[in-house]
Amino acid sequence: MPDHVIPAPQVPTIPTADGGAFPVRRVYCIGRNFAAHAVEMGHDPDREPPFFFQKNPDNLDASGEFPYPPHSSDVHHEVELLVALKSGGTNIPLASALDHVWGYGVCLDMTRRDLQGEAKKMGRPWEIGKAFERSGPVGPLRSVAEVGHPSEGRIALLVNGETRQEGDLNQMIWKVPEMISYLSDYFELQAGDVIMAGTPAGVNAVQRGDVMDATIDGVGTLSIKVV
């Protein structure tokens, strides 16, 4: 194999609760997967076909800090369950979808809402609002052997001690096995792929100096300072 003509980029990783590192290949994010959040974003909460967008693997960040990004004055928090895959394939049956999961974590889908809104109005992609540097704060992953497959439990986010978002994993419109199976019909999923599983209602803006505390029962907690 020829030598690289530039230094090879490092593979982005997420720490695991047992001290290991989970290498990330792709990041799939589902939109409007909680009915109340769909309503607050101005959409019908009925079960419509799922849709996904992507972040970049190196957008995921476990530093505990979120640098307020440039060119925005309206940056929103979205607390989510992260699903980490140990294997994949195409056309994965619903009944075996969970066999491909390595573990779960708590993450945030930080969004430059003003830039996303402009993109929506013009019919353009969302990456400028979603896939910017360190836009995916994430906590340590915990394995299926440790936490099982959480299908219910409180998911919440507090900002400076005040509850902003609160819901239950059982309120997800599209469940984890359904997301895996659906994605595999359109993409070849592989080990290292992660899915950000959607956010409950209550998304709102943060400012520099805010502290965001996220929790998912049975999965973990995550504390992030906006800097």
TrEMBL record:
Pfam families: FAA_hydrolase. It comes from the Bacteria. GO terms for molecular function: acetylpyruvate hydrolase activity; metal ion binding. Residues 27-227 form the Fumarylacetoacetase-like C-terminal domain. Signal peptide: none annotated. InterPro entries: Fumarylacetoacetase-like_C, Fumarylacetoacetase_C_sf. Keywords: Hydrolase, Metal-binding. This is Fumarylacetoacetate hydrolase family protein.
